[in-house]
Specification:
- 25% of the residues lie in helices and 28% in strands.
- It is of the alpha+beta class and 577 residues long.
- The protein has four domains: 3-76, Phenylalanyl-tRNA Synthetase, Chain B, domain 1; 86-286, Phenylalanyl-trna Synthetase, Chain B, domain 3 (Phenylalanyl-tRNA Synthetase, Chain B, domain 3, 3-Layer(bba) Sandwich), CATH 3.50.40.10; 292-362, Phenylalanyl-tRNA Synthetase, Chain B, domain 1 (2-Layer Sandwich); 378-576, Bira Bifunctional Protein, Domain 2 (BirA Bifunctional Protein, domain 2, 2-Layer Sandwich).
- Strands 4, 5, 6, 7, 8, 11, 12, 13, 14, 15 and 16 form an eleven-stranded mixed β-sheet that branches. A seven-stranded mixed β-sheet has the order 20-23-24-28-27-26-25, with helices on both faces.
- The chain is globular and about 95 Å long.
Length: 577
């Protein structure tokens, strides 16, 4: 859930009322938000001011800035009417021309213009902050979409969006005084903590996307940085917004959100000037600011929410949530979805807003019409019982990551990753999380590695799921519940691990039987590469191999930067259900 920071004084000024912390917390709860915390921060002038940290829904992009939050709360309190966002009709639209050379890199660009806008320091900061928040969540760190904002009075259209070799792109980037090529910028920002994460998006491409005006002035190098020439300031009156994207839908949502939030500062509020995009002979106009209508029934809303409201009452509740609603002659309700509410994609989202507007605390508690008796899943019940039993044997429980590196389950365990039925992550962010674990033992060994300074012996265990690749299942993989234990000391302690196995089998009421017996468990010779030859055994229960135990091979121990012998055990407990 994203959290936004809002200055209390700015918030109160927008709402037109001074709230106590308790009163505002209650208002947030009624609207479906949460006041996470209240902190004191120093502003640019060194003065202390109160800041509210507010947690909002991940899909409510319209609440990511103070403008959208204030507007939504005022509508919710019936203090203002729901704004109507419209497109202006200038004599000539600004135009973005897409060159075919850029289609292989970042194929889409759309734009809009905010005319006669008035900035203050707070409005300007909020404008920049909203762009950053949209970049981070909806645009997936600028990979799907990125926004550039420019002072329209310093540039001249039509604008050209094209791909050019990095060495041919030269301009003065934002907050710089020297001209750089795009290739030089890749080196310059390689150590910049803010821009460094975005460089890989275009760095290795043979051409980089760039936007020029009609005078060959560079506007921006998307998605990295804008030009110093066209930067917006507090004196800017006309803002040209361009949004380049690889996902046109996401780009439209970003653009819609940005222009609808800040068009209120124009001389004529909520009027947005569109921009036409020309690509391969086809002309389209953005933003669309599309309104659509959904029709719902009052009975369906009442049944799902658990209330008893008439059509007019439900329409009024939805209007409080910025979903303007009217009652039709057949008592159905027509709900208008504005361009600010891209989170509404199904009638269920509308029913949720009915519940929020009605108030969750006001919904009467009642006994469900269908009675069921809940009980714990058998596998979880068995896990809890074994967890308690193993802990009573003197072992400490560990909780390790479900993802690990290929080396953890492969090379370090003396196994080939090609022979392991592991589920691989398609685009791993770090080398530590490349595959879903197929065994618990590597995680326990890494836990010991991180706690080598603890007093010996170290006796740890874990009971959790591993993931096994299985093409016979619907999703191509399945979970298995495993129990693993590890003993680390100056001596191997095989007898301790063996004793733990016997105790676990005793708890499971599985008797010891003769070799190849089918009515209990026994130990057989193991050829598992992770264990020392001749000091390992496979565990067979009811005729099937359920795991292995023994003294770990020295190469496994040194592979995890350990220097003392280890004995380990890992079994699959699902056959005992």
């Amino acid at each position: 859930m994203p959290t936004i920071s809002v200055k209390r004084d700015v918030l109160h000024a927008g709402l037109g009322k001074q709230y106590t912390e308790e009163e505002f917390d209650e208002l947030c709860f009624e609207f479906g938000l949460e006041l996470d915390e209240v902190v004191i921060e120093k502003n640019d002038e060194g003065k202390e001011e109160t800041v509210y940290k507010i947690e909002i829904g991940a899909d409510r992009y319209d609440l990511l800035c103070v403008e959208g939050l204030v507007r939504a709360l005022l509508v919710f309190q019936n203090k203002i009417q729901i704004p109507r966002y419209t497109l202006s009709k200038p004599g000539k639209l600004e135009r973005l021309e897409v060159d075919p050379s850029v289609l292989q890199v970042r194929p889409f660009v759309i734009g809009a213009v905010l005319r006669n806008i008035t900035f203050t320091k707070e409005r300007y900061d909020s404008f920049i902050e909203l762009q950053d928040k949209l970049h981070q969540n909806l645009a997936r760190k600028r990979t799907l979409a990125s926004v550039g904002t420019h002072d329209l009075d310093t540039i001249k259209g039509p604008f050209r969006y094209m791909g050019r070799p990095p060495s041919d792109i030269k301009f003065v980037p934002l907050n710089q005084t020297k001209e750089f090529t795009s290739a030089q910028l890749m080196e310059l920002y390689a150590t910049d903590s803010y821009l460094k994460p975005y460089l890989p998006i275009i760095r290795d491409s043979p051409v980089h996307p760039v936007i020029y005006d009609s005078n060959n002035v560079v506007l921006s190098l998307p998605p990295i940085i804008n030009s110093e020439h066209s930067k917006i300031t507090l004196k800017t009156r006309n803002v040209f917004i361009e949004c380049t994207c690889t996902d046109l839908t996401k780009g439209q949502i970003v653009l819609d959100t940005l222009v609808t939030m800040f068009s209120q500062y124009s001389d004529t509020p909520f009027i947005i000037e569109p921009v036409e995009t020309v690509c391969q002979g086809e002309t389209k106009v953005y933003p669309t600011l599309k309104y659509r209508t959904e029709t719902i029934k009052a009975d369906k809303a009442n049944n799902l929410v658990g209330v008893n409201q008439g059509p007019k009452q439900i329409a009024a509740l939805l209007s409080k949530m910025c979903l303007e609603s009217t009652v039709n002659k057949d008592d159905t309700i027509s709900v208008t979805i504005p361009p600010t509410r891209h989170d509404v994609i199904h009638p269920c989202d509308i029913y949720e807003d009915v519940a929020i507007a009605f108030g969750y605390n006001n919904i009467e508690k009642m006994t469900p019409h269908t009675l069921t008796v809940a009980k714990q899943l058998p596998i979880n019940k068995l896990t809890d019982q074994l967890r308690e039993g193993v802990a009573q044997c003197g072992f400490t429980e560990a909780l390790t990551f479900s993802l690990c590196s290929r080396g953890d389950v492969g090379t370090k365990m003396r196994k080939k990753i090609e022979n392991i039925p592991a589920v691989h992550i398609g685009n791993p962010k770090t080398l530590e999380f490349q595959v879903a674990r197929t065994a618990l033992l590597p995680g326990l060994l890494k836990t010991v590695q991180a706690n080598r300074k603890m007093p010996l012996p170290l006796k740890i265990f874990e009971i959790s799921d591993v993931v096994i690749k299985d093409l016979g299942t619907e999703v191509g993989a399945r979970n298995e519940r495993h129990l693993s234990a590890l003993f680390y000391n100056k001596s191997s302690g095989f007898e301790i691990i063996h004793g733990l196995l016997d105790r676990v089998m005793q708890l499971l009421e599985v008797p010891r039987c003769g070799e190849k017996g089918m009515d209990g468990y026994y130990l057989a010779e193991s050829q598992d590469e992770s264990y020392f030859p001749g000091r390992a055994a496979q565990i067979v229960a009811y005729g099937q191999v359920i795991g292995h135990m023994g003294v770990l091979h020295p190469e496994v121990i040194t592979g995890f930067d350990l220097n003392l012998p280890c004995s380990a055990l890992e079994i699959n407990i699902e056959p005992f259900l």
